[in-house]
Amino acid sequence: MGNVATDNNKKALYNPDENTLQIATNPVNVSGYQSAITAARYDTTGNGDYVDVEVLSTGIVQTGDKYDGTDHTVTYLSSFEIELPDYLTKDGVEFIPIQMTVPYTPMDVVVGTGYLNARLRIDWDQTEATGLNQIEPDTTMSSGQVAAVDVTDSATGIRMETDTAKVASDTQFQVRVLTSGTEYEKATSALGNAEFTLYEIKLVNGANELQPYGAVSLTFPYSGEVSMYRINDTGTKTVLRGTESDEGYEIMTSKLGLFAVFGGTKIDVKPSTSTGTNTGSGINSNAATAFTDISGHWAETYITRAVGEGLFSGTSTSTFSPDTSMTAGMVITVLYRMAGSPATTLPDSMENVAEGSWYEIACAWGYNNGIIGGYKAFYPEQAVSRQELATMLYNYDSLRESPSVSGDLSKFSDSGSVVSWAKDAMTWANAVGIVSGTSATTLSPESGASRAQVATMLCRYLDYAK
């Protein structure tokens, strides 16, 4: 609902002299729920230090009776002002984390009296002069049922719908049914002896688990008398209010995790085969099953997992090309995604790395963090060798606290071919099981690493790093 709440007020008012931004909002009607933003605060440091916005004007909206049978009168923020945080560069597209309250909607049950996480998107390239001193809100109610991201988990039939602003790029939608383990025991403790089905729902990017930047719709394929709870990290439970439709039981939530379903009858659903209109988001579910060239391949299991973890995509909708070589630029981009695609500083120029290239930011991150040794020695368009890949993984692992490892490459007849700067990395990679020999007696350190080999090494690294 956060995006719809500014549908009629897409432009903010920027005052460079005061370093402030004024934002206007409008009431919303989404799927019959009527509400508006009644409170908001924003992150002043980029580290989760939130302060309340300065309210400039308010309005009144009637909620209707869909939420609880009562038509509530709500006072909402029709305009407010924030002081722009120092962490903004005021160049290109930037985001400010914001938290807001939108009462009398399904999200209200999830967040209680707290706040819903969202982001303010600022496009500095679109600024233009105006004679206004204070923003003038358009208070017309906006309606919408945005589903720019639409993906269904094929195994469980659970569907997620949202828009591109609420999920990170190259994110994987994952759902598991839990029947044992610590999380299941936590749910059993919270719910008692009742019969339930426990789902673990995640958004992941490589090894990183993410949360959406606002509310997403989750539809569980159940009909009839359905009850649902979230199992919180503390072991407590929170009741979730949803709505019934022909497709199942739908809830709105800004926090993924453990969801317990009681009662109802399971509905057979066909999985979504695309990501709706959000073709650039990278949201996928079980995408590897569509590849026609990995069946029976020695690395099929690793390829399927790597695609499922969001580390790889296919070379087309039906092919993975497992034996094709990978370039150094491709590998550093995958590692950058594994790290969560953090913000990084771009130098004025980078030798061997073209300005504006698709791997430019990943290369800058790699250099700034010691993953790659230097731009003059790094050739992103060249095929990466096994020893170069091992070195990049070795340097990547140094970003975390990990135990020291000793090993010995003397059993391989070509161990002398390992260059001096890759010796420690290859020894480590072999010792922890990331790199194995190409035969019982050969390591082939200078051979190019294929997409299948890279997928295998990355999956083995993720297992090692757990």
TrEMBL record:
<feature type="domain" description="SLH">
    <location>
        <begin position="286"/>
        <end position="349"/>
    </location>
</feature>
<feature type="domain" description="SLH">
    <location>
        <begin position="351"/>
        <end position="407"/>
    </location>
</feature>
<keyword id="KW-0677">Repeat</keyword>
<dbReference type="InterPro" id="IPR001119">
    <property type="entry name" value="SLH_dom"/>
</dbReference>
<protein>
    <recommendedName>
        <fullName>SLH domain-containing protein</fullName>
    </recommendedName>
</protein>
<dbReference type="Pfam" id="PF00395">
    <property type="entry name" value="SLH"/>
</dbReference>
<feature type="domain" description="SLH">
    <location>
        <begin position="409"/>
        <end position="466"/>
    </location>
</feature>
